[in-house]
Amino acid sequence: MEPTATSAPTLPRSIEEIRGEFPILAREVHGQPLAYLDNGATAQKPLAVIETLDRYWREQNANVHRGVHTLSEEATELYEDARQTVASHLGADRREVVFVRNATEALNLVAYSWGHTNLTAGDRIVITEMEHHSNVVPWYQVAQEKEAQLDWAPIDAEGRLDLEALAKLLELGPKLVCVTHVSNVLGTINPIEEIARMAHDAGALLVVDGAQAGPKLELDMAALGADFYAVTAHKMYGPTGIGALFGRRELLEAMPPFIGGGSMIRKVSKDLITWADLPAKFEGGTPAIGEAIGFGAAVRWIDELGLPAIHAAEAELTAYALERVAEVPGLTIFGPPAGDDRGGIVSFAMVGVHSHDVSEILDRHGVAVRAGHHCAQVLMERLGVPATTRASFAVYNTRDEVDRLVEALLDARRVFEL
Amino acid sequence: MDELYRDQILEHYKRPHHFGRLDEFDLDFEDSNPFCGDEQHVFLKLDREGKVSEVAFEGQGCAISTAATSLLSDELEGMTREEILALPKDFVLELLGIDISATRMKCAMLGLKVVKGASLGKAADWEDEGEQGDPAEAASL
Question: Which residue did the predictor score with more confidence, A193 or B105?
């Protein structure tokens, strides 16, 4: 039988099997089975990652790119294999993948290295109202120092980027456009290909914060057209303390180092220092070796499940969650309706109950969500709320967990006598 | 769970005492809790002897921060700035009468911090708003 055009890609294993690969999902919180719906903050780790880390620390640990001994050679090979895995996943050359601590550091690297070299007084940088602080603060800092101007691209009433307003800002001739791929509050998936075309037509480079997109979307740098793209491992089922910056090779070649020290030099003499080749130029000091290898394991695990299938499963669950959560009286739900441009993030505010109190009551039901401003205070101001409660999904979440979220929200209303 | 959200706390959250602004005041201070974005602005009017004669606060926050400041506002009349600055953390915790977890301690202490800020004329930061830390030692005039 021929597959129909509408059939969604399916996961190679059952959800029960996948859940079984995450030991933490078996634990209880306040006597209730854990329903972990805070994946936008960090995802849980599968055995494939935990066992890779364990093996590295037990059997393979050594410094990289230094010793001429067996362990160092093994560690170097594993570290560079991990880079190749991440590079292949991003459709990039390995020289275009710089290991960093997290997406924040990746964006700071661009702001400091590219920004300090290329920005001058009066230059403009476009950022959007839906950015996480990690894609705001570095640009604010470099703009202050260089007397450059930040222009804020607005969002529309449903929480999508207003592309017409963006086009107007591009007419002002910015050097850089900085945008998130998936909003960590609204779940909006921004049309990066289109934004890249618009930015490039206006003569600007495009920096993309892919922290939330990493675990959700297939990322092909050439197809997306991003000049810089930041991901973080811990939201992609990998360890904390490791992430990657993709940068187009000719851009990275022309940029000065970000952090000076060991590993990033070619030759040091008393009056002349020359830099190492890419990507070592940007990796001063001993890197997070075990974590990078764990990142590689996480990416292999994701690729084995297949991002189209992961995305389809999350989209299905998100549509169900949006429908169910709307049944709770007194909730304002933010972000676009279920559809192709909506990722697995559902933020809401309960009239009369602060998000911290909502989160505290949900926790007593074993339901873990995020409460607060989500490091997106400009967006909170735009939405007119001090904080929201956010449920964010991963491939292992189930309809049963969404049902428990809804039950717990109804209980919050009972506790607050609403 | 309803220990945390018992009637007294909910009552003060829904109908906080001294909520609003003072048209005339001698001291005021505004601060926020960066952890959750809660904001409070407190106004104090002093009598001739330098004792609090009127108090008001406004802002937005969770049940814990709002109830804590509401409860605290009931106690401030008649206090001098020095007495306010000497108030320990336990003063507010005893008013709340519930166990406050480390993560919610900043919520519970926001009002005390703002009231001390008003008394001092600048932010009254203390080392640790978690388990340890003694706001009574944070600042003096």
Answer: A193
pLDDT digits (tens, 9 = 90+) for A119-147: 999 999 999 999 999 999 999 999 999 99
With bands split at pLDDT 50, 70 and 90, how would you rate the model's confidence at A1?
very low
Q: Which two tokens stand for residue A200?
A: 């490039």
B61 in contact with A at a CB cutoff of 8 Å? Answer: yes
Q: Which residues of A touch B5 (CB under 8 A)?
A: 357, 361, 415-416
pLDDT, residue A417, reads 87
The answer to whether A252 touches A96, Cβ cutoff 8 Å, is yes
Among A316-320, B105-109, B118-122, B137-141, the range with the most confident prediction by mean pLDDT is A316-320
Q: Is the peptide bond before A279 cis (omega within 30 degrees of 0)?
A: yes
Residue given tokens 């505290």 in the structure block: A360
In angstroms, rounded to a whole number, what is the distance separating the alpha carbons of residues A17 and B65? 43
The residue of chain A nearest to residue B10, with distances taken between CA atoms, is A416
Neighbouring C-beta atoms of residue A271, cutoff 10 Å: 4
What does the domain layout of chain B look like in residue ranges?
7-120
Sign of CA dihedral A290, A295, A300, A301: positive
From the CA of A363, how many Å to the nearest CA of chain B?
Answer: 10
Which domains does chain A carry?
15-30+306-415 (3.90.1150.10), 50-304 (3.40.640.10)
For B7-120, CATH number?
3.90.1010.10
Nearest Cα neighbor of A200 from A236, A152, A232, A248 is A248
Write phi, then psi, for A230 (nearest 5 degrees): -110, 130
**In chain A, % of residues over pLDDT 90:** 92
Do the interacting molecules here have an ipTM over 0.90?
no
